[in-house]
Design a protein that fits this description.
Blueprint: H1 3-10, E1 14-20, H2 23-35, E2 41-46, E3 53-60, H3 64-85
Amino acid sequence: MNEQDNSKSALHDYVTVAIAEDVDLADEYRDLLAKNNIPAATATQKSYSSGVIGIAVMVPEACVEQAQEIIESCQDFDNFLDDAFNDPDEWDYGPQMGDNEDDPDNGNY
């Protein structure tokens, strides 16, 4: 049996829990799962019909539910950060120092 056959058989009982857009995100998910004692592997996925490329994050079938919960919590946190910090049109800056001309110090404290 060659190395490729060994890796295929080693991942035979693994199932995909997420598809990452890039290697960095897949590695982040894999590391997060490992920190939670869930073995994980990544593999490049390509759909020849649509040309979409992604990185599958896979775990043993027995760990699917726990892995999905961990990844979803990470995604929820990432979405929170995106919403909180990446939409400056929604930010309410409030009064800025020096905005009040009636202020005798004119914003200089």
